[in-house]
Amino acid sequence: MQDVIEFIQAEEVRYLDIRFSDIFGAEHALTVPARLLSEETAIEGFAFDGSSIPGFATVDKSDMILVPDPLTAYVDPFREHKTINMQFFVRDPLSQTSYSRDPRSIAQNAQEYLKETGIADTCSIGAEAEFYVFDSVRYSSGVNHSFHHVDSDEGWWRSGEETMMDGSPNRGNQIRINDGYFPVAPYDKTIPVRDDIVYNLEQIGFEIERFHHEVATGGIQEVNYKYSDLLHAGDDMQAFKYIVRNTAEAHGQTATFMPKPLAGDGGSGMHAHQSLWKDGKPLFYDETGYAGLSDMARYYIGGLLKHAPAVLALTNPTVNSYRRLYSGFEAPVNLAYSQSNRSAAIRIPLTGDNPAAKRIEFRAPDPSANPYLAFTAQLMAGIDGIINRIEPGEPVDKDLYELEPEELKDIPRVPHSLEASLDALEKDHEFLTAGNVMSEDFLDAYARLKFDREIQPLRQGPSPKEFELYYNV
């Protein structure tokens, strides 16, 4: 903490933006003069009303405090006056104990539980959150209407328009459906905003590995950066989303991490690369194992596949998530594992003989997830697999999208809806409450809020597609 305080003084930082996340993954911020941060206030915490945060406390138990994590501090590149953004833990003001519904505390619990098991001391997570950059978006719903409309100058749907969105002539450089992987200008019209996203990420300390346009039309992007431990991988994802959204805004564009914003083209995933380490040594490598995997890695996969229906309630937590999870566009719907095979939910990347690079990639998650909860759920499923030596079965080294029905019938598939995933979570959640990582209270509140705020409202009104299908029946 002292380093941050000295930086604030030396660099004349004006404000401190106190960041924390609700259970859905939305960030909240409270700004205070930076001079108020001291060793004493860091211990005492900053007070706030927990009853005003979705899914947090009731009004009769609303007083809470926020305690800083100095490892997460960075200078905000968008504020006019110099401001440091920092992630905080939510604490009870009387006992100073962690709040059971604080996502960062849950992720910290998972890290501590991993150490307590003796299995490993670090879970490394490298997450690849795809996102769309659109030029405009409009949506509305009411008693007598509902619609959405997104637009992009590179969208294939604009190929027949006379002019571009700025009024200039259409020169015909649109990206075809499912044909947007690694295009160059002038087809890729998102190079300027993507370059600036990467520049801003590097300014706050991200180590960028690669960045490019993804497969779909209409502006889908991917920016890959260096992995971190589970807790700070969650922090990185929150900072990543903040930078992406605000850089797009500065360009007069809009970014979304919605899993499936376009019908008939690819969605946005958040592929999660993960591995376990102990005393600085990687634990997932064995040159004699399938794809170079150790027994531990195989059991980890077994746990993840066994608990996947419940895990998806936290890694794919929106109704829209399941618009992405159907066959086509490389959707990871088959609960199998395979080497270098993107049709399986778990892929083992080809990494050669380097033990430190050996990892697994869970391809089902999407970026609508709260990253702290999503990463925790995956780790906890993997730990359960290791403890109980859960075998994942034989790998499936075939294109699962092309299998005959007779072969495919024995391969489990992901749940078909958020409601189905929440049902699975209700029946299978003991692996999440092990070591008091997640509480029954938290899981009950999470499921109830998901049903009340998302599932139930979408049941109550018609969609435009239903008018197309049924108005004249």
Automatic annotation (TrEMBL):
Domain GS catalytic: 103-473
Keyword annotations from UniProtKB, A to Z: ATP-binding, Ligase, Nucleotide-binding
GS beta-grasp domain mapped to chain residues: 11-95
EC code(s) of this entry: 6.3.1.2
Reaction(s) the record says it catalyses: L-glutamate + NH4(+) + ATP = L-glutamine + ADP + phosphate + H(+)
Entry GO MF terms: glutamine synthetase activity
PANTHER family noted in UniProt: GLUTAMINE SYNTHETASE (PTHR43407), LENGSIN (PTHR43407:SF1)
The protein's name: Glutamine synthetase
